[in-house]
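forwarding from the other thread:

> can someone predict this with adenosine-5'-diphosphate?

sure thing
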Amino acid sequence: MADVILKNVYKYYPGNSEPTVIDFNLEIKDKEFVVFVGPSGCGKSTTLRMVAGLEEISSGEVYIESRLVNDIEPKDRDIAMVFQNYALYPHMTVYDNMAFGLKLKKIPYTAFAIDRKKIRSLTKELKLTIKNEPENQEKIKQLQEEISYLKQNKVEVIKYRKHTRQEIDDKVMEAASILEIEDYLERKPKNLSGGQRQRVAIGRAIVRKPKVFLMDEPLSNLDAKLRNQMRAELILLRKKINTTFIYVTHDQVEAMTLGDRIVVMKDGVVQQVGTPTEVFNSPKNKFVASFIGTPQMNFLDGKLIIKDGHYFVNVFGVDVKLNSRLSSKLKEKNISEEKEVYVGIRPDHFKLGLEDKETFKGNILVSEMMGTEYHLHLNVNDTKLAVKVPLIGLDGELLSQIASGGEISFSFENDYIYLFDKESEESLEN
Ligand code: ADP
Ligand code: MG
């Protein structure tokens, strides 16, 4: 069963000529961790806020646990949301910040009682029937009997009660222990570090035991080191509380490391949905290929050619034979004409030095020593290339060549090239 379903969801903000979210479709499974990722302004927060009920859904449907929630108030959707700016109450202690939501949230329970609510609604229906369809004696009799039964018999009804002080305390302490913030429960937010505040904000969401956790760039306000640490903590947290997550970020590293599945968005349109591996290894278009992976994939102007029944791609004036996987894909698609393409090569898939295959020459513009690898910026016939070179396996000659700059030979791995249609920018492997 899917836990959260978005069906043909659109968002039109008044005053904007174009829709902000366009035909968003997704089925999120129970306990799945899904990440919406894309550049700033692509509609991630808007989509999340529609799931939360903080933003009206212009058209389409959102279901949470099979229940259509379009017209359900945020507080009744059984979700909890954590934002980038933690929005803690400054005058309350950490404990009270976490307990606050529980004081408002009522607990449903069943009890045996006279169901007055049902009696009221049936009586209303009876009056309407007598007025509008007096000839329908059968329905009138049925309603009268049902009302009379309900007046005399207790039935199971759902009632609501507040949390007891003990229940609140148990839940706050459980969340505090999961997040290891027991030591500063009596502090006010102003006396906490950014990371601690973010933990309290998460704690406030955990105590409510929501069915779905919504997080909108929760780590963006933290410095790089803390962000890495909190990212790892989120992975652990997820194991501990084991519920459905929708997480929004513009950071592809967060998306890759946290998500069971990633939804890549651009200009309000979902570009691809897949596991991190799928999205990384088989990007559906040039945008996804460029957005996922760092340093970014290189895109070279190329031309697909067919010679003696074999596929080649011409880059920098050299015909490079395509491997059998790509070739059979192109054959399957009946591509029988030469066409302009973008050749995508990740920085990791180059090799420096002379090899006994197609070799190119480039000029080293910049070399960045990253500890275990070099990041080189090469200029090849006025095209810039980003190349990653692990230090392991570099011989002395290559090392000194890198150090002195100038011209260098390189080749790339034919097994790791991607081809995108020049016009549509779609992958030719789709
Ligand atoms: P993201 O979270 O991916 O950065 P948002 O969903 O916040 O993107 O915003 C998507 C687009 O919608 C942006 O162009 C933004 O300016 C616009 N937008 C967001 N909120 C409103 C609003 N309340 N009224 C009008 N336009 C809005
Ligand atoms: Mg946003």
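Residues 44-45, 216 surround magnesium ion (ligand 2) (CB under 6 Å). thats all i got for now
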